[in-house]
Design a protein that fits this description.
With 368 residues, the chain is α/β, with parallel strands linked by helices. Strands 2-3-1-4-5-6 form a six-stranded parallel β-sheet, with helices on both faces. This is Sulfotransferase family protein. InterPro entries: P-loop_NTPase.
Length: 368
């Protein structure tokens, strides 16, 4: 049985990619000190989707939550499970997850970020998850109380009440994202102090973040999503095709991307929401690492909106994107020609693995 399990459950766009990159890049070092990262980053993501019974999950994947929990239970030391999608689990799903781990101690870690940066991040993340709504449409929905999914999936208060209430107050941890301009190491040290990773134990020279797209690039992706119709409805195929070949290979690589955000006309609204959030967190019994003042927007600078992108400019970027996609396809062709046997072998192994997984499911279903 695991001694302690640390559940890092979100929120999305709070530096979780950076923290996870450090963890997985130092997996062997951590194991030597008695800390296990069960499965892989992909495995933990698949287990999260299974736990939540998410409609976009791929039913063919190998890793389920029960399989991941079994790995955690078998480890005699400490375990870290980190996936920002866990915070969106329902109360019933969270209770099931905690009960399944069977650890001596279970700790819940939530990371909070100021709303001025969180609103545009949430909307961008939703578009990168296949949504097609406009930025202004999203903000208006929040203002009018028609976007509970934002508060449920992206704010520390709601996550702590669903997950934190399942463990004693001393095992609930709120980490605050430092104000803009702080080095990423600050967030890492706040997280590492909770899970008992000593300074210097981990190598921090890893990719720092999951970079955001600019206003034009995210607007282009939004329109692509609208045109896709019912193609790639599941998360894994969408990521394998759209993320891999369009977002990661082309859109993220574009230089001089135009930042976007909330207009100053909404500054007072955001500040009022931030104060209410800080008060609620101050009253909630948990261990705060950082400072609740970090959740108060510090730099309310004017920014453009993707909704105002000029169609002529968007057309130019779309044409440049097509050219870059052709270059990307050419590179993939060259690699395939240089290593045809390796590619064929991988395809055969992937197909064989799929057949084996289907056979195992049939055997379990039929009770043989």
């Amino acid at each position: 049985m695991a001694r302690r399990v640390y559940l890092h459950i979100g929120a999305p766009k709070t530096g979780s990619t950076y923290v996870q990159n450090v963890l997985w890049s130092n997996r062997d070092r951590l194991a030597q000190t008695g800390i296990l990262l069960p499965g892989s980053a992909v495995a933990q993501d698949q287990a999260m989707a299974d736990l939540r019974a998410a409609p976009w999950r791929d039913p063919e994947v190998y890793w389920t939550w029960d399989r991941l929990a079994e790995k955690a239970r078998q480890w005699p030391g400490d375990v870290i499970i980190s996936n920002e999608g866990l915070g969106a689990a329902t109360g019933e799903q969270a209770a099931r997850a905690v009960a399944s781990l069977g650890a001596g101690e279970i700790h819940v870690i939530v990371v909070g970020r100021d709303l001025w940066r969180t609103f545009p991040s949430f909307w961008q993340q939703s578009v990168r998850a296949r949504s097609g709504w406009r930025f202004e449409e999203f903000l208006r929905a929040v203002e009018e109380g028609r976007c509970e999914v934002f508060w449920e999936n992206h704010t520390a208060v709601r996550m702590l009440r669903r997950w934190g209430d399942l463990v004693p107050a001393q095992r609930r941890h709120l980490v605050t994202v430092p104000a803009p301009g702080a080095p990423p190491e600050v967030l890492w040290h706040r997280f590492a102090g909770i899970v008992g990773i000593d300074d210097g134990r981990c190598e921090l020279t890893v990719p720092a973040a999951n970079p955001s797209l600019g206003a034009v690039e995210i607007e282009l992706l939004r329109r692509v999503n609208r045109k896709l119709g019912d193609r790639y409805p599941l998360r894994t195929p969408y990521r394998r095709v759209v993320h891999r070949h369009l977002v990661d290979a082309v859109l993220k690589q574009r230089a001089d991307q135009q930042r976007f955000g909330i207009g100053l006309d909404r500054a007072d609204w955001v500040l009022d929401l931030a104060e209410a959030q800080i008060k609620e967190l101050r009253d909630y019994p948990c261990q705060i690492v950082g400072d609740l003042d970090d959740l108060r927007p510090a730099k309310l600078t004017p920014a453009g909106t993707p909704d105002a992108v000029d169609d002529d400019h968007l057309l130019d970027v779309a044409i440049e994107t097509i050219v870059d996609l052709l270059g990307h396809a050419h590179t993939l062709d060259e690699r395939a020609e240089q290593q045809p046997d390796d590619v064929l072998t991988r395809l055969k192994n992937r197909a064989a693995g799929g057949v084996k997984r289907r056979l195992r499911r049939v055997i379990r279903r039929d009770g043989r």
